[in-house]
């Protein structure tokens, strides 16, 4: 095992070791009956994360850090700011080989959960925010997908209640403090990468820890154009 592989293995092991608080799912540790395809879902998502980091770790030019994992994104894909349809090769814009080399990833969500529709049942979840962020990264021939690492300041999935786990909620202050530990580790493993906070929660948390970063608006709620302009002014 190379030094980089060892670093990735240790980093992912640390993520896996995080014990979820109430109303939080750690996609790389927690199997949830009725939502995941089976206990193997945890291993699949962990493998996706390792494969995603391998071509980027210590080489990435930018680390984009959003707020938290969403149920349409890394909750089931295992890759931050990336949906199941992207990792499985069922997305119109993002080919799975832009995410990791080799075979397509594997779906981990059951086809009949939350807000089912034909596309979700057939191909898994798609996340609008992920599509906007990936689309901006891919819009310039100057950059390669491997120049970027996507992450979240709270890299786990906070949801509203046990009755409705297919929801997203804002992380608590304590959860954000937990998440900073992983952001710092990622920075240490990529010392030449510039940090780009997506949204206010991420930016405020990094600022409170005196971590140097750029700040761009979150593209949700009609702010995609502002997000795109801000990103282009940086990269």
TrEMBL record:
<dbReference type="InterPro" id="IPR036895">
    <property type="entry name" value="Uracil-DNA_glycosylase-like_sf"/>
</dbReference>
<protein>
    <recommendedName>
        <fullName>Uracil-DNA glycosylase-like domain-containing protein</fullName>
    </recommendedName>
</protein>
């Amino acid at each position: 095992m190379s030094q980089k592989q060892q670093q990735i293995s240790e980093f992912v092991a640390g993520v896996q070791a995080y014990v979820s608080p109430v109303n939080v799912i750690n996609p790389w540790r927690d199997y949830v009956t009725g939502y995941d395809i089976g206990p193997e879902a945890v291993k699949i998502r962990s493998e996706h994360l390792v494969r995603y980091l391998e071509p980027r770790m210590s080489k990435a030019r930018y680390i984009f850090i959003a707020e938290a994992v969403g149920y349409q994104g890394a909750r089931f894909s295992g890759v931050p700011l990336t949906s199941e349809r992207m990792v499985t090769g069922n997305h119109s814009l993002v080919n799975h080989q832009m995410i990791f080399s080799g075979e397509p990833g594997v779906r981990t969500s059951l086809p009949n959960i939350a807000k089912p529709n034909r596309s979700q049942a057939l191909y898994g979840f798609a996340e609008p925010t992920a599509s906007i962020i990936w689309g901006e990264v891919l819009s310039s021939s100057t950059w390669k997908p491997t120049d970027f690492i996507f992450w979240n300041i709270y890299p786990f999935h906070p949801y509203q209640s046990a009755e409705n786990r297919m929801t997203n909620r804002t992380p608590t202050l304590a959860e954000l403090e937990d998440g900073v530990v992983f952001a710092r580790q990622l920075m240490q493993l990529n010392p030449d990468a510039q940090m780009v906070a997506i949204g206010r929660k991420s930016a405020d948390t990094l600022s409170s820890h005196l971590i140097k970063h750029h700040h761009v608006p979150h593209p949700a709620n009609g702010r995609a154009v502002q997000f795109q302009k801000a990103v282009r002014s940086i990269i």
